[in-house]
Structure formats: C-alpha cells, structure tokens
Please model this.
Amino acid sequence: MKRKYAVVYQPIEDGWIMAPVPELPGAVTQGRTLAQARSMIKEAVELVLESYRANAEKDAQGNAIWETLTVEVPTR
Model:
C-alpha cells in the first residue's frame, strides 16, 4: 500500500536541511543537501511506520480484529 506524507524541508544552521513529517511524530531527520535529506526522511518514515506496526501487534490482544481504513486527506 502506498501513502503520501507531507515533508517540510527547513534550512538550519551550518547549511543543513531538517526534514520533519508533521503527521508522524518521531519521523524527522536532516541532511547536508536536499537530496540527502530526501533520502534520509524516506528511510526514517519507513522505520517509524515499521515500529508503530510492531508495537501495535505486540500490544494487541489475541482476539483483536485488524482491518484497513480508507480516509480522504486534503491536499494543498
């Protein structure tokens, strides 16, 4: 399944670029260039989502029902 996330690229000190994903707490990284920040945030998002899923599976009771929810998210 593919999902789109907004990333905010912000120049910070020493020419670095910070890249947080506002929708995913914990998904933030930085890079020396925009290309590096883009690559790093993709990996960060994948790791955060993997961690969220693993924690949910660990915490779910044996009789939990899992399903997929589809919602419309406004775009800019």
